[in-house]
Amino acid sequence: MSRRWLILMGLAGLVVLIPALGFPFMGHAGYVPPDVLQYVAYDIAGGSFLIVGWIAAWRRPNSRIGALMMAVGLVWFLGQIGWIPNALAWSLSNAVGNAWAPILAHVFVSFPSGRLRARRDRQVVALAYGWWLAAQLADTLTWHPAYPSSSGHNVFYVLGSQHLNDEIGRVTAVGTAVVVALVVGTMISHWRRATPPSRRVLVPVVWASVPTGVWFALEQLSNAGCWAAPRLAW
After folding, report:
1. Is the pLDDT of residue 164 over 70?
2. DSSP 8-class letter at 81
3. Angstrom distances, CA of residue 230 to CA of 35, 91, 167, 169
């Protein structure tokens, strides 16, 4: 990646990051007051991908891993557009929910080069992107929340009911947990088949992918009512 593109991506990161930091605290009517610590932690997590990814891409322009990490950070903040008091923005924030997850799976599976060399790796990453797209499409077209706010309705709603949407959520949550298991299993397989020097490079990513995968899978199951709590509505 050329330095010009890196500079443009860095500017794009600032354009996304700066408004995202302020949206939750602008006091829009109809929204629950934000948990400051929660949103600070959220912004730090997303911002770290932008910053670390940009540094990695600048230092090693021939590697794709930095650009992929920046993509995780950029997409991470897309959901923040839901704080804009507009029905379309609010609906888009739901439609792109967790769009960072398949990109992060791509980062894990392709680390450290950012390239998918094995056929199994390409299949797992393609499954991660495809499953996210199918799950989000099914959810977006059937999600019809009833909020008093004029901006709090899903403009992409086509058919179905809340019961149907809940059932879709349970099925997709279980499917997501399976995809997460495949991604984590692929990472562990990479580590087991690697040479000792390569293992030392992969260790941090393996240790990151396992707890991240478990957290994400349990969160999806919990939000769908499969684990502990009913689905949370934002």
Report:
1. yes
2. G
3. 20, 21, 12, 11
